[in-house]
Amino acid sequence: MNRHEIIVQISALLMQLEDGKPTEKEIEKKSEKPLEMLTIKECAEAVKGISEHTIRQLVAQNKIPFIQTGQGKCGKILISKSALLDFFAK
Fold first, then answer.
1. DSSP states of 1-31
2. Domain total of the chain
3. Residue 62: helix, strand or coil by DSSP?
4. What is the pLDDT of residue 50?
5. pLDDT tens, 15-50?
6. Which letter does DSSP use for residue 49 in this model?
7. Is 77 helix (H, G, I), strand (E, B) or coil?
8. Are residues 24 and 50 in the same domain?
9. Are residues 46 and 86 in the same domain?
């Protein structure tokens, strides 16, 4: 299993927790297009008018799904670009 497939599966699991169980078509659809993961800084750049602090607050409040690589202060938080844009589209 390669890195991309693992990220797609983790993203699908996070979406299950957020919205309920996705259908098999949704999982296949998500695996067809590449999943773009953004850092906190990249998220703030992608959504104009939103600061890094705001993105960190959304992560801390579990309002947007994320993956944390590593542990503690050295861990990097990654957020799916599509999940981020969907959150602000509401």
1. --HHHHHHHHHHHHHHHHHSPPPHHHHHHHH
2. 2
3. coil
4. 92
5. 767 665 555 666 566 556 678 899 999 999 999 999
6. T
7. strand
8. no
9. yes
89: tokens are 């589209």
C-alpha 50/C-alpha 3 separation (Å) is 29
63 three-state secondary structure: coil
Residue 77: both structure tokens together = 């938080």
Say whether both 29 and 42 belong to one domain. Answer: no
Q: Quick one: tokens of 27? A: 């999982």
Position 7 confidence tier, pLDDT thresholds 50, 70, 90: confident
| For residues 52-67, average pLDDT | 94
Domain assignment of residue 21, given as a range: 1-34
Q: Which residue has the higher pLDDT, 39 or 9?
A: 39
75 token code pair:
């861990």
At 50, is the secondary structure helix, strand, or coil?
Answer: coil
Number of residues that make up the chain: 90
Query: pTM value?
Result: 0.61
- Contact call for residues 64 and 58 (beta carbons, < 8 A): yes
